[in-house]
Amino acid sequence: MIGFFIALISGALMSVQGVFNTQVTKASTIWVANAFVQFTALLVCLGAWLFTDRSSLGAVFKVEPKYMLLGGAIGAFITYTVIKGMDLLGPARAVMLIVVAQLLVAYVIELLGWFGVEKQPFEWRKAIGMLVAIAGIIIFKWETNQ
Length: 146
Hints:
Layout: H1 2-27, H2 30-51, H3 71-89, H4 91-112, H5 124-141
């Protein structure tokens, strides 16, 4: 149950962060805002590390395969695309598309067992759930000419 609440908090924080980052971009540029976001995230993580576990920072370099260390670089492009998406589409539309894209890619990763994730069997109910989410986007975006 705690995982459920943590995921809800994550989604809420991602939406708020996206709006904040988009506003910061208006006062600077997208890459300056992105660098600031990543830098402040580094400071928060280092502070949390200092006050919590202080395990070896070098342990991260023992990760195999090495491409798994690209998460931070991917994070910079996530921040960029969230800012651009929210700027061009607005927060609600952008977040809907982001969430559906996350669902689709996560399900494909599970189905194919990519990146060390345990392979899962195809389930029609999950595929139907994806279609319902896509239908939700279409309904949400639907504009009437009244």
